[in-house]
Amino acid sequence: MARTVTLADVAARAGVSTATASRALSGKPRVSREMIERVRAIAAEMGYRVDPVARALRQGSSRLVGMIVPVIGIPFFSQLVDAIEDELNRAGFELLLADSHGFIDEEVRRVRVFHERRVDGIFIIPSDRTASTQSLANLPEGFPVVQVDRATDRPVADFVGVDNLLGLQLVFEHLAEQNVATVAFAGSDDASINGVERWDAFHRLARQHSMTVRATYRSEFSFASGTGAADHIHRAGPLPDAIVCGSDQIAVGVISKLRELGYDVPRDLLVTGFDGGELARVFWPSLTTVVQPVSSIAAEAMKLLLGRIESDDGAIHRNRLAPTLELGASSQRRTAPAS
Question: Where is the HTH lacI-type domain (predicted)?
Answer without folding.
Answer: 5-59
